[in-house]
């Protein structure tokens, strides 16, 4: 089976250089004969194996914006358009829209524009915050943000994995998460992350805040 796959792969790739690693393995299913040093996997799939492969439903979508494209292109709208095109309109997509919006704006404001969320500790600070945001957007010439969205579906439901990566200097995401734990009346920043934690699951930051991931499960 591996030899057959390698032959098809070489024919498909031709002389084009490979851009990534390629891995293959054989999974022994029903009807396979196993010895101490060899697994004899028959070329024909068992019915159980065929049904399992046919039940897998997964697709991925991504976009990366850099420089001034961050000021004129709405990647969240593009992501939602793709989701609706592929999976149809669902009420749950409003939550996905909120997750994407909050995390993308967070990456743009704190990662790329390096805005200090402490300005939003008072109502008056909001105006100053957004004035400074507009100034920095107008002078934005470098930095990028990438959105990766994976959709997996089974008979029970689906799972959307969102990953947002920016090329900024990072930020104190631990403080942001701490702010999100405060009472709404005590602090005005961090409310977006608190909403993300409520709507999604497995929220995690890495690479000094330059990468954020969250999962959104739903039932069919």
Describe this structure in words.
- The protein is an alpha+beta fold and 220 residues long.
- The protein contains eight helices and seven strands; from the N terminus they run αββαβααααββααββ.
- The protein has helices at residues 2-13, 47-55, 69-72, 75-87, 93-112, 123-138, 173-180, 191-199, and strands at residues 33-34, 39-40, 57-66, 144-153, 157-166, 201-206, 211-219.
- It has a five-stranded antiparallel beta sheet with strand order 3-4-5-7-6, covered by helices on one side. Strands 1-2 form a two-stranded antiparallel ribbon.
- α5 (93-112) packs antiparallel against α8 (191-199).
Give a quick precis of the structure.
The protein has 220 residues and is an alpha+beta fold.
């Amino acid at each position: 089976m591996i030899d057959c796959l390698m032959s098809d792969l070489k024919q498909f790739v031709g002389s084009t250089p490979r851009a990534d690693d390629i891995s293959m393995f054989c999974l022994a299913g029903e009807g396979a004969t196993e010895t101490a040093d060899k697994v004899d996997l028959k070329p024909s799939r068992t019915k159980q194996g065929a049904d399992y492969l046919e039940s897998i439903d997964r697709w991925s979508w991504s976009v990366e914006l850099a420089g001034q494209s961050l000021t004129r292109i709405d990647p969240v709208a593009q992501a939602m358009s793709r989701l609706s095109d592929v999976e149809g309109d669902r009420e749950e997509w409003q939550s996905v829209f909120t997750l994407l919006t909050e995390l993308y704006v967070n990456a743009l404001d704190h990662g790329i524009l390096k805005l200090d969320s402490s300005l939003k500790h008072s109502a008056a600070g909001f105006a100053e915050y957004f004035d400074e945001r507009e100034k920095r957007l107008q002078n934005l010439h470098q930095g990028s943000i990438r959105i990766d969205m994976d959709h997996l579906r089974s008979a029970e439901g689906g799972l959307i994995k969102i990953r947002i990566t920016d090329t900024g200097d990072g930020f104190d995401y631990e403080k942001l998460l701490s702010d999100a734990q405060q009472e709404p009346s005590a602090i005005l920043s961090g409310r977006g992350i608190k909403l993300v934690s409520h709507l999604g699951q497995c929220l995690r930051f890495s690479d000094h805040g330059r990468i954020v991931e969250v999962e959104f499960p739903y039932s069919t």
